[in-house]
Amino acid sequence: MITLLDYGAGNVRSVRNAIAKLGHEVCDVTGPEDILNAEKLIFPGVGRFGLVMERLQRDGLVEPLIQRIRSDKPFLGICVALQVLFEGSEESPGVSGLSILPGQIKRFAPGNLSVPQIGWNGIRLHGDSSLLNGYNGDKLYFVHSYRASLEGLPEEWLLTTSDYGEQYVSGVARGHVAALQFHPEKSGPAGLKILENFLNSGQDRVCEITARRVAADQPTVMAKRVIACLDVRSNDRGDLVVTKGDQYDVREEGEVRNLGKPVELARRYYEEGADEITFLNITGFRDFPMQDQPMIEVLRKTSEEVFVPLTIGGGIREFTDSEGRSYTALDVASEYFRSGADKISIGSDAVYAVEEMISSNGRSNGSSSIEQISRVYGAQAVVISVDPRRVYVDRPEETGHHTIRTELPGPNGEQYCWYQCTVKGGREGCDLDAVQLVQGCEKLGAGEILLNCIDRDGTNSGFDHELINLVRGAVSIPVIASSGAGCADHFVQVFQETKAEAALAAGIFHRREVPIIAVKEALNAAHIEIR
Ligand code: 1PR
After folding, report:
1. Which of 212, 243, 278 finishes a domain?
2. Looking at the 3D structure of the chain, how many domains does it have?
């Protein structure tokens, strides 16, 4: 029996699902005595450092946790649960951690790398431990803006380090206790193997570092991510289907295109090596997701079988239902997180939030959906889905928008264009450009940009590099390039010609025109880091 410390913030369902998949039963911590008595305790830390500590304090769990770890009872901490083992964090000044380990957690300062670090990185082994038995060197999934430093860490605890602009601690272990900065439950087969080693250990000190190693010199390198996207909606018969549009028009001869079943396709992409799966509930702007149980069910079922990150978007905003019951955007997002999402994506509501901030002279009162969700779940859990389209102009100075000189002139020979943001799945254009939107969203607390392009969507003509360079240059959070992939070479080109951290495609994967493995092989042949 595995005991899980779930304090109600973030995606703990994935850890639950991974444990179940590995054949173990899970029970929850219901009070301080469970922390002390549990045979094996897993603590998946999600959210901000201060919030995690506040919840532990509220539930009287701080002292029992310290006692458990000091008395060397089996314990596995994940992500922020590694960070709270230290004395404090720059993320939440003045909040004390568990102080098992000395030092402060600091924010990444990686120069031109984006923060948060989101994606697949390597680990460098500093010692041998049965926790890593069978680990084959595959990359593992990280998502964080703050990191533990090597400085002052007692050597007997140091299991692994990784690099992201600087070297940081990615795993600590001693005796029966370990904590990992990466997410084993989201790291595919390599992560599940590590989790399994912990779950299956008997009385042996599974985490003990039995021999020291001379760590490799080469830095670990983040992989460029390949993401499969599933646009989901109900067809005219009421079945939830994966569909795909051409420039956002998903109907063919009057019918909604049906390219498959969401859970089946997601499972297929996981098995084929997708680094992440994104679901977009494309009619979410008019339907209300908390009444849309099928979509939540899709997420629940997918997270039982798919152990890479899942993002879900569509309809994340505040809402009042027909009985007058109101839900905040945070309520909606929380339901998605509880159902297995690791990140949520916001489209239309992000546009409204930035328009409002601009009309209030760049100030916000803290109530936007982005701020609400980011405060509780952290910036890395909030993705902004941008749906821009090109507007060609002759005179850039007259637009009042961020305009570029384009190598692809407009229909009347226009040399310039700007990218107009849209809402409601491209149905309405706004007086806001893509740069204004993404900069506004970063300021409000978003952690990643999913950059679609209506002009390229479904065209198979390649990604819009001009758009991607414009947006990537405007923010310091990761950017996912989306729309237009038609062949494996388009992925090579987008990573060679832009600084996008990830690239997403839909149509070519759904129609089996290009397998994910072919994309990975092409990237590998071009010496682009992959998982
Ligand atoms: O506004 O918060 O409710 O979110 C709605 C979400 O649904 C947004 O993320 C928006 O992008 C998405 N959406 C709305 N309508 C459509 C549509 O297609 N009619 N899909 C839509 C957006 C774009 C990509 C697509 C890529 C890659 N789809 O997700 O997967 O363009 O396609 P390709 O590789 O085939 O070119 P809210």
Report:
1. 212
2. 2
Atom of ligand 1 nearest to the CA of 285: 3
Tokens 């109600």, residue located: 8
What is the per-residue pLDDT across 472-502, written as a single tens digit (0 to 9) for each? 999 999 999 999 999 999 999 999 999 999 9
SS3 521: helix
Q: How far apart are alpha carbons 485 and 491 in whole angstroms?
A: 7
Q: What is the C-alpha to C-alpha distance for residues 478 and 448, in angstroms, rounded to an integer?
A: 5
Q: How many CB atoms lie within 10 A of CB 151?
A: 10
- Whether 220 is in a domain gets the answer no
Asked if 445 contacts 354 with a C-beta cutoff of 8 angstroms, the reply is no
- Answer yes or no: do 175 and 244 share one domain: no
Range of the domain at 235: 225-525
User: For ligand 1, is residue 448 a contact (CB within 6 Å)?
Assistant: no
> Are 161 and 245 members of one domain?
no
Same-domain status, 396 and 510: yes
Sign of the C-alpha dihedral computed for residues 483, 486, 491 and 492 taken in this order = negative
Whether 531 maps to a domain, the answer reads no
**Residue 506 Cβ < 6 Å to ligand 1:** yes
Assign residue 86 the CATH number of its domain: 3.40.50.880
How many Å lie between the centroid of ligand 1 and the Cα of residue 83? 36
Indicate the pairing of strand 502-505 with strand 225-234.
Answer: parallel
326 alpha carbon – ligand 1 mean position (Å): 26
From the CA of 278, give the closest atom in ligand 1.
29
Q: pTM for this one? A: 0.97
Yes or no: say if 41 and 69 are a contact pair by the CB < 8 Å rule: no
**Tens digits of per-residue pLDDT, 58-116?**
999 999 999 999 999 999 999 999 999 999 999 999 999 999 999 999 999 878 899 99
